[in-house]
Amino acid sequence: MTKSYPETLLLEKQGNVAILTLNNAPANTWTKESLIGLIDIVTDLNNDLSVYSLVIRSANEKFFSAGADLNLFSDGDLAVARDMGKYFGEAFYVLSQFRGVSIAAVNGWAMGGGLEVALACDIRIAEEKAVMALPEAKVGLLPCAGGTQNLTMLVGEGWAKKIILCGERVDAATALRIGLVEECVENGSSYTRALTLAQQVAQQSPKSVTACKTLIQSNRTRNWDQGYIIERELFVDLFHTADQKEGVNAFLEKRAPQWTNK
User: Has 136 been annotated as catalytic?
Assistant: First the structure.
């Protein structure tokens, strides 16, 4: 973890948990540099077998992230639009394919690309004061980093249309009710709760977690019948791993397993 990343993305590690802090004051807007940095970070974490989970949090008490800096699009430059759309899409897709479990600790405003990065995570924990929206259509744009797709998968077509087409802002309680977030917690506690969940992941076989995540997300592009087949195939594949043998024998020997992610 000695590699240099943008100063707007602070990476640290606690045990098997990687912690990524968004640190671009005043509102944690995304830039081309930070999007490329996110791609590099997730790629490196995928190659670090000691990392089982990732928590994304904000260094800002008010904003989780306000998304893109609209100054980039003020002159209507098509080349800039293509460039930023490309990096937004690639960065958040790479995040969605992270080998382990990713958890967003949404502590404040999550707007546009700021909500899309949370949507790309596996789990979202929102504080009571959090407000979420995809307001791109208000400025003649649209969510281009997975927002239209990931939001619809989570909350259904009706709520996705209400949020995107009507510009509806969603508070944490509503987000919990419609399935946009998995938990709503007291102000100031989203990171602690996200870290606790991330540490729970370390109790699971990392190889099993990766296989299960692949299966859960497979129905985004495959039908259920195909999923059942792949489920059985990946079950058998786990028997080629050291962690499968360790997990079963640790249970039989009544001891805690020692995972190696191999």
Answer: yes
